[in-house]
Amino acid sequence: MDIPYTVLPRRDTGLYNAKLGIWLFLASEVMLFGALFSSYILLRVGAYPGAWPHGILNVPIGTVNTMVLICSSVTVVLGWAALKANNFARYRKLQAITIVCSMMFVCIKSYEYYDKFTHYEVVLKDGRVIDGHLIEKVGGGQMVNGVRQHPESIILHGVEFPAEMKAAGMAKVPLMERLAGEHGGHGSHVEHKEYTIAWSDTARVQNYGPWHNTYLAIYFTMTGLHALHVIGGALVMGWIWGPGAKLWKTDPERYTNRVEVSGLFWHFVDLVWIFLFPILYLL
């Protein structure tokens, strides 16, 4: 028995099954991301004045990623239009560009994550703060009684801040915020040097992962969830583009509908990033 309304629209909704299903699914996705965006707004509004971090994300890289995702949405539409015009070869080329763009987006985001996980804030016992990127961990690291030992020292390339800033509560404010506060700008003129720090002299060593502060916890949660959606959407489109393309020969209209449904999900993913980029990178 054939399943009804896989191609023709239902009389009650005016949509075929898959399209109705994707719109219902996207409604649930709106509630999911809506809750996260609302939480972000409440946390930011409730933060102490001057305590919310600024300038710790790479805006040019984020802009490039935004353009990559927008381009992928354009090629999705053009690919679907090519199928409607019965031009399967053009669709394959355009959808291949979409999949490549999704891979580029994830690779760029992975680079941003790597940059944060190798960016350390080291508070010394004398109150000084050294903030910079990890070059090397020297010595240590072996397992003793099931516990991994700390390194003997770590080498960072970054900036040193005096103990007075820690006493003033500045040690919890990320690097670019401190530089802006002390120098009245983005701190690009501040000299970065290489520091070798003995582990025995440290009071706290922490990288810029989601545990570093509330802002980074939100950043990793929302962008990580978004990246999972990008990967999931790319896998589905890749299957339709590859093994699933056999359906084009037997039922081209149904195949076109599948491409349209996956495209609707991809537009949603793009739209979420259009909101994430300004609130996390620019504001």
Characterization of the model:
The chain is an alpha+beta fold. It folds into two domains: 33-47 and 56-115 and 214-282, Four Helix Bundle (Hemerythrin (Met), subunit A) (Up-down Bundle); 119-204, no CATH class. 57% of the residues lie in helices and 14% in strands. It has eight helices and seven strands, in the order H-H-H-E-E-E-E-E-H-H-E-E-H-H-H. It has helices at residues 17-45, 59-84, 88-117, 163-167, 175-183, 214-241, 247-250, 252-282; strands at residues 119-124, 129-138, 143-144, 147-148, 153-161, 193-198, 202-207. Helix 2 (59-84) runs antiparallel to helix 8. The protein is elongated and about 75 Å long.
Number of helices: 8
Looking at the structure, the CATH topology of the largest domain is: Four Helix Bundle (Hemerythrin (Met), subunit A)
Question: What is the typical, i.e. mean, pLDDT?
Answer: 86
Structural class: alpha+beta
Distance linking N and C termini: 55 Å
Instruction: Tell me the CATH architecture of the largest domain.
Output: Up-down Bundle
Order of strands in the sheet with most strands: 6-5-2-1-7
| Assembly form of the protein | single chain
Rg, rounded, reads 24 Å
In N-to-C order, the SSE pattern is HHHEEEEEHHEEHHH
What profile does the largest beta sheet have?
5 strands, antiparallel
Query: What level of helicity do the residues show?
Result: 55-70%
Shape: elongated
Q: What fraction of the residues are assigned to beta strands by DSSP? A: 5-15%
Total of domains: 2
